[in-house]
């Protein structure tokens, strides 16, 4: 049997999933991690509890829930950030968090100081659609 160690993204995904479960008592359905030059985007799929999803149905509830999750990740950046830094081998400078009430997803964006712009898509793109090359950029 061949054993291969977990990739950095898999290690981060496990760490963030365990952190979310420990802090909120709710385990996300899945966690994806994307690394790209100074930015790590972690998406916790279906991470909101049923009560949080109900809270999102009002503007004030959505605002309070976003603030809660932003404060939760910022306040926990010490222990969680230290573990992510250990896994990835780079220092984290900033974390941004947001929720997507329609899907129950929570997104954490960790940066090492890179300028960051985030665009939320209303639908998914297939792998065939999301293909391009360096020369395709504007």
TrEMBL record:
A Pfam family: MpsC
InterPro entries per the UniProt record, alphabetical: MpsC
Highest taxon above the source species: Bacteria
Residues covered by the Na+-translocating membrane potential-generating system MpsC domain: 8-111
UniProt name for this protein: Na+-translocating membrane potential-generating system MpsC domain-containing protein
Organism: Gimesia panareensis
């Amino acid at each position: 049997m061949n054993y291969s160690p977990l990739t950095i993204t898999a290690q981060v995904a496990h760490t963030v999933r365990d952190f979310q479960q420990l802090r909120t008592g709710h385990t996300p359905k899945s966690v994806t991690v994307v690394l790209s030059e100074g930015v790590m985007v972690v998406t916790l799929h279906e991470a909101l509890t049923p009560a949080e999803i109900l809270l999102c149905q009002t503007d004030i509830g959505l605002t309070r829930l976003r603030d809660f999750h932003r404060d939760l990740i910022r306040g926990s950046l010490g222990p969680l950030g230290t573990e992510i830094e250990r896994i990835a081998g780079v220092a984290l400078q900033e974390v941004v968090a947001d929720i997507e009430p329609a899907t129950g997803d929570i997104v954490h964006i960790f940066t090492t100081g890179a300028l960051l712009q985030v665009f939320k898509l209303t639908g998914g793109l297939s792998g065939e659609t999301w293909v391009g090359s360096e020369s395709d950029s504007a």
